[in-house]
Amino acid sequence: MVFDIAFFVLAVIIVGAALAVVILKDVFRAALSLVMLFFTIAGIYITLHADFLAVVQVLVYVGAISILIIVAIMLTHDARQGSTSGKLRIPAIIVGLLLLGMLVFTVVTTKWQLNNTPPLEPTTAAIGMKLFGEGGFLLPVEISAILLLAAVLGAIVLIREK
Amino acid sequence: MNLTSLGLMPVGLMHYLILSAVLFAIGLYGVLAKRNAVVILMCIEIMLNAVNIALIAFSRYVVPVQLTGQIFALFVMVVAAAEAAVGIAIIMAIYRSHQSVDVDKLDLMKW
Q1: Could you give the CA distance from residue A61 to residue A38 in angstroms, rounded to a whole number?
Q2: Which residue, A8, A86, B3, B88, is most buried by CB atoms nearer than 10 A?
Q3: pLDDT by residue (tens digit) across A52-77?
């Protein structure tokens, strides 16, 4: 019951913040509402009993990616121009609404096979066992380490002065 | 107003999926319509977060004890972090050569 009310409050904040990101003319304000969006999505994860992912969301998105985006806004001086829309604004709205209609139609008409087992809580140990345990996802973890290394090296190479 | 009779309570898988669809559509609109490359990157992050909400909702309501959806969302976050780092490096390189991050002015590959 508490989670139900929390879901609706968080959902309203999320949709409002997401709309603010695409509507606001000031790029910096858009970035700040993006930070709020990331925070409230962490709240949504808590209502889904995903406590570990909520913390990871705050660490990775609120802590790292939003700072990266704000630094990018500071370093590129298009912030004065604001975040304007291009010529394709109306087609983009139509495409977005079409996709939304299609997705909502599919979600509402599909008969989902729900499972009424109560969710695991806390999830941290179980996720650790899944990732590193026997028959788990150890190979993808190793591959993602290589991916992150490649991303860091790629970013350094791209941004280096020639 | 009775929320139960309207189908709004209790909150289930459908609510989370619709929230995720709304977020994804907003992100898609931003990616298609915006001219500032940094804002486009922000909208891509919105779309990735929408996907994560859907994955975790499926994990919670369809396979509550296996956590596979949460593991997948974790990998989506890893890829999103890598994508943000490389994307911002690319934007910086573009800004250095063009003094602008307006994607309408980037017509180098147009012929």
Answers
A1: 6
A2: B88
A3: 999 999 999 999 999 999 999 988 87
Total of domains in chain B: 1
Inspect the interface and report whether the beta carbons of B9 and A4 lie closer than 8 Å: yes
Whole-prediction pTM: 0.91
CA-nearest of A45, A42, A119 to B66 is A119
Task: Work out the end-to-end distance of chain A between its first and last CA atoms, rounded to an integer number of angstroms.
Answer: 59
Please name the member of B14, B36, B90 whose beta carbon is closest to the beta carbon of A83.
B36
Q: Check which CATH number belongs to the domain holding B39 and give it.
A: 1.10.287.3510
Quick check: A48 and B16 CB within 8 A?
yes
Q: Which residues of B touch A160 (CB under 8 A)?
A: none
pLDDT given for residue B12 in this prediction:
86
Quickly list H helices, B34-108.
Answer: 37-61, 68-98
The CATH topology of domain A1-81 is Four Helix Bundle (Hemerythrin (Met), subunit A) (1.20.120)
Structure tokens at A6: 């929390």
In a domain, B25, yes or no: yes
Sites in chain B below the pLDDT cut of 50: none
Read off the amino acid at residue B2: N
A109, pLDDT greater than 60: yes
Does the predicted interface ipTM exceed a cut of 0.95? no
